[in-house]
Specification:
The structure holds two protein chains of two kinds. By secondary structure, chain A is of the alpha/beta class. Helices cover about 45% and strands about 15% of the residues of chain A. Chain A has a four-stranded parallel β-sheet, sandwiched between helices. In chain A, helix 2 crosses helix 5. The longest helix of chain A is centred in the middle third of the chain and has 18 residues. In chain B, helix 4 links the parallel strand 5 and strand 6. By secondary structure, chain B is α/β, with parallel strands linked by helices. In chain B, helix 6 crosses helix 11. Classes of the chains: A alpha/beta, B alpha/beta.
Chain lengths: ~160, ~290
């Protein structure tokens, strides 16, 4: 608990902004379970609930970066567990290709995470969020993108 | 080099036959206008007009872009002159049910490349002799063997850079974009009646020409073409700001090749990678 208090009251330390797109059936339930199990995880993560990881349009990720996200996470059901049978399989192909595309364009792929978290994996969710928060804290603010947020009209 | 006269003659004969006997309403081909640096699109509707058609080494445009235009489709059955690269675009249009095979007549022309010096896409072309056309005019040309390294050399040059250098490069390139959407309008596969850029509720992509919106636009354009783009290179040729768009398309084509052994547009009954999936797809990089 003392750790949690530290996280939320110490404003001097820079806090990353993490946007997470979670599927309704597995990862959101997993995050819910983490909460019900009193497994603390950093408050830097902002969760957006979607019906399925297959719903994630790459524009969601770009928009999040535009709005100042330092890291974007997409999480869905493990392969074989999709509530809609195959949404996560489609997402897997698309999102891995999308990661290659942004990497090619020079957008740091460490800023875009994909994970599988089931409804029973509250503990995995909690440790995953701790892990990626620590990682993005080490990376610092996403300045390559936030620099263009200042309204500077390119070069 | 001047117009290839034998090829042009047999092309005109074929077009005349189609227009007079075979119920074809319009033949889309190339026309020559004095000393213009390129042969413009030509729409021939009467047999006596076929002499306006030519085929030479300046027929850059991908005429398949017209197949999805309502004004053209309303004319009736369409005859279209296709080079190998154009045919690949037609195959994607067929695969995506944008055009019906029975509504078009494909006039294939063997092509050894357009322009001098040859653009990259022509020097690594593997479809010099279009396959599966209704009519082929002219004699087949020699088809050199191309390896993957040659094909994806533009993408490899950028892949060799570090992530910071790539950002430096692309933010410089993309900040030049004036958002004229010539890349979209010239693309035979960007046929959406309403493009994502014109959607305002919600507005995914900022429309003013600054780097932030330019990145979003170019990411969206590239991703919507992933697994579909046939590498005809028209987007880059049309770009007034000389942004190397082909390199992005090439990178995504390379991925589709390496991951799924997929080459868009080689046949009209293939399945696009993003419309299907495999249980054995890679999990690399997923937490």
């Amino acid at each position: 608990m003392s750790q949690k208090t530290n996280n939320s009251t110490d404003t001097s330390e820079w806090q990353p902004r993490i946007v997470a797109f979670l599927c309704n059936w597995c990862s959101y339930a997993g995050a819910d379970l983490a909460g019900m199990s009193r497994l603390a995880y950093p408050a830097a993560i902002k969760i957006v609930r979607l019906p399925c990881s297959g719903r994630v349009d790459p524009m969601f990720v770009i928009k999040s970066f535009e709005q100042g996200a330092d890291l974007v996470l997409v999480s869905g059901c493990h392969p074989g567990d999709c509530h809609y049978t195959s949404g996560n399989y489609h997402a897997r192909r698309k999102l891995l290709a999308f990661r290659e595309l942004i990497t090619f364009l020079g957008i740091d792929p460490r800023r875009f995470k994909i994970s599988w978290v089931s409804a029973a994996e509250g503990a995995k969710w909690s440790s995953l969020v701790k892990e990626i928060t620590a990682e993005v804290k080490a990376l610092g603010p996403f300045e390559t993108y936030s620099k263009i947020l200042t309204g500077e009209p390119g070069r | 080099m001047s117009a290839n006269s034998t090829l042009t003659e047999s092309l005109q004969r074929a077009a005349s036959e189609l227009l007079s006997d075979l119920n074809v309403a319009v033949v889309i081909g190339y026309g020559r206008d004095g000393e213009s640096p390129f042969s413009h699109p030509e729409f021939v509707r009467k047999p006596e007009d076929v002499e306006r058609l030519v085929f030479d080494d300046r027929c850059f445009g991908n005429l398949a872009v017209y197949l999805s235009k309502d004004a053209i489709r309303r004319m009736g059955k369409i005859g279209i002159v296709v080079k190998g690269c154009d045919l690949r675009a037609v195959n994607v249009l067929l695969r995506e049910h944008v055009v019906k095979r029975e509504n078009i007549v494909l006039i294939g022309v063997p092509c050894t490349g357009q322009g001098d010096p040859l653009p990259h896409k022509c020097s690594v072309c593997e479809q010099r002799n279009p396959q599966g056309c209704d009519i082929v005019v002219g004699d087949p040309v020699e088809q050199p063997q191309i390896n993957a390294e040659q094909k994806y050399s533009d993408a490899a040059n950028i892949d060799a850079k570090s992530i910071e250098e790539r950002w430096e490069f692309w933010s410089g390139q993309l900040s030049k974009c004036i958002r004229c959407y010539a890349c979209r309008n010239v693309c035979p596969l960007c046929y959406c009646k309403r493009c994502i850029i014109e959607k305002t509720i919600p507005q995914w992509i900022e429309t003013s020409a600054h780097l932030r919106g330019n990145i979003a636009w170019n990411v969206a354009r590239a991703f919507h073409l992933t697994g579909r783009c046939v590498g005809c290179g028209e987007c880059e040729r049309a770009c007034p700001m000389d942004i190397p768009l082909s390199a992005i398309n090439q990178k995504m084509a390379q991925l589709m090749d390496e991951w799924f052994d997929f080459h868009s547009g080689l046949s009209s009954d293939e399945k696009a990678p993003f419309t299907t999936f495999s249980l054995d797809d890679s999990d690399t990089g997923i937490l």
